[in-house]
Structure prediction request, 436 residues.
Amino acid sequence: MSPVRERIDELLTRARQRDPRLRAYITLLDEQARQRAEELDATPAHTRGPLHGTAVALKDNIDVAGVPSTAGSPHHGRTASCDATVVRLLREAGAVIVGKNNMTEFAMGVTGRNDAFGDCRNALDDRRISGGSSSGSSVAVAAGIADAALGTDTGGSGRVPAAVNEVVGLRPTLGRMSNRGVLPVSPSFDTVTPIAPDVRTAAAMLAALDHLDGDGTSVEGSRTPVETALDDGLADLRVGVATGFFADGLDSGVREVLAAAVASLREHGARVRSQEVPDAEHAQDRMLEILYPEAAALHRDRLRDAPGTIDPDVLRRLRLGAGISAGRSEKARRWRQRFRQRVDEVFASQDVILTPTLPTDVPARDSVDLAASTREIARYTYVWSMYGGPSITVPCGRHPESGMPVGLQLAAAPWREHVLLRAAAGLERITASTSA
Prediction:
C-alpha cells in the first residue's frame, strides 16, 4: 500500500475506534479521504505541496463540497455546493480532508456542549470540559485522530478548546484569511483558526491559508511570510507580561505555571517586563455589544419563526443580541477604535504580550454555569479578539493540583504573525526542555 493511503487508513481506523467516546466528529469522510490519499501517492515528488498527506479535520461550519455543513445544529444542515476558500487552499497544499468536527451549536459557547450530536469530551479527562466552540477540532488533534484541524475563533472559540486539550490554537490577524464558505457568528470578529499539535505545524497551516481572496472577508496587509522567524529564538525578544485585569482573580495553579514560564523566558534571553493593557477589563462587554446583535441578525428568521429548534443556551444569547440597540452597538464600535489605538501604543515597545489563556483550571463538565461560562472562561481571549491582532495559545505545563494542561497566550500587533510564531516556538521549546 502507498504511504499516504496507509497513514490515512490507520488514522481513520483509529478515529472509528476512539470517536464514539470522544464525539470529536460529526462526519468522517472515509471514502473521499482514501481517494485523495491515492491521488497524492501518485503525485510526483517535485510537485508535492507543503502539507502533502497531512490529515486535516474541519469544524462543521466550514464548507466541503458535497458534504452537509450542520454548524452543530440538527436543523441547519445543508449540503455545500463548493469548498470554502480555506478548504481549497488546503487541498492545493496537499492536505487530506478526513472529516467534519463536532462543535457548539452555531459556534456560540465555550464548553463543548452539544445536545444534538453529543457533548464533545476532553481528550485528556472526559470529566472536564472540551472547550468550545471548536471543540471537536481540538479534541481530534489532541487524540491523534487528525494531524491538524481548522476551527473558527470569534471570542476564543479556537484558543479555549486548544488550551484545555493541550494543543496549539492560532488566531490570525483579523482579515488575514478568507471566511468565504464559513458560517459566521459575527463578521466583525470571526476568523478561521489553525489547530495543531505544535507551533511549527500551526505555522505551516497558516502559511498555506495566508491568501487575499478578494471576497471582502480577507483584506490587504503587510503579509510577511509567517514561518520566517520560527528558529530565531528568544534572545532580545521584548515580552510584556500582562498585569492588572490579567492578574486579578487568577487561579493560583495557573499563576504558578505562568511564573515558571516567565522565569524561563528570562533565562533564554527574552527582555521581560510587566505590562498593563489599557481598558482590557472592558473589552469583553463592549465586544458582546457588537457580536451578539450580529449573531441575532444572522439567525433572525429562525429566532422569529422556530425558536424551539435552537439550543436553549444559544437562544438566550441570540435574544440578548436582539435586545441590544443599534445605537449601543455603534457606541461599542467607536470604543473599539480607541481601544485598538491604545493597544497599538503598547506594541510600539513590546513584541508580544503574554497572558494565561484561561484564568482558571480546566472546569469540570458538571460544574459549569452556562450563563456565566463565556464571561469567565474566555475573558482573557476576548481582549485580543477585540483588538484584532494575532494571538496563539501554547501548552506550557500542567496544573499543580489537577494535572490538567495550562495554556499560555501570546498576542502581537496586526500582521506580526512571524514575530508571534517566533515567540511561541521559543516558548514551546523551553517548555519541552523543562518537562523532559
In short: The chain has a mean pLDDT of 97.
